[in-house]
Amino acid sequence: MSDYLPNATKDSLRTAALARRGALEPAARIEASLCVAERVEQLGLPVGAMVAGFWPIRDEIDPRPLMAGLRERGHGLCLPVVAEPHLIFRELLRGAELVAAGFGTVAPGPGAAEVVPDVLLVPLAAFDRTGHRIGYGKGHYDRAIAAIGANRPLRLIGVAFAVQEVETVPFEDHDRPLDAIVTETELIRCRA
């Protein structure tokens, strides 16, 4: 019974947050993505960190302007590819040919270097101010975070619209909270 209730709660929170996100006007989405990019300096990333971005699907916020700002500041970029047992990340260079990477996204093809990111920009359905998040229910990021974070420091930054915030996200002991969340209205620091 205890497993059922958090999952049911997560499902209802996910559905409501995605509905709010889906109701945003196209012009508001574009403006929000540009506002997020303006917060690039506030992220305070280590010099030269390899940053895993994501290719937006459906009506997600578009992290590509933020990723462009990170590249201009000397950060390497990569994109996730759905694989087993967890996501892998391929280096994103200018002019790289992009191919289907699973879950409706694209990434550099198999000829691109596979890298291990220092920072993950994490897409999400909903979040709270303590850094807990609700994904899309497939566990792709959870498995990658556990695998990479077991061997090295890994910084997690959620990227979302402000309307995706909820009061509290149910979580389990193994769930790793985000270090920060960047929205069009603010940078929320969740962990010291």
Task: Write up what this structure looks like.
There is one protein chain. Residues 1-5 have low confidence and may be disordered. This protein has an eight-stranded mixed beta sheet with strand order 6-3-2-1-7-10-11-12. The protein has a two-stranded antiparallel sheet with strand order 4-5. It is built from four helices and twelve strands. 35% of the residues are buried. Helix 3 (64-72) links the parallel strand 1 (50-52) and strand 2. It has helices spanning 4-22, 26-37, 64-72, 140-149; strands at 50-52, 76-81, 88-91, 98-102, 105-108, 114-115, 119-122, 126-127, 133-134, 155-159, 180-182, 187-189. The N and C termini lie far apart (34 Å). It is of the alpha/beta class. Helix content is 26%, strand content 22%. The longest helix is centred in the N-terminal third of the chain and has 19 residues, at 4-22. The protein has a single domain (4-189), classed as Rossmann fold (3-Layer(aba) Sandwich), CATH 3.40.50.10420.
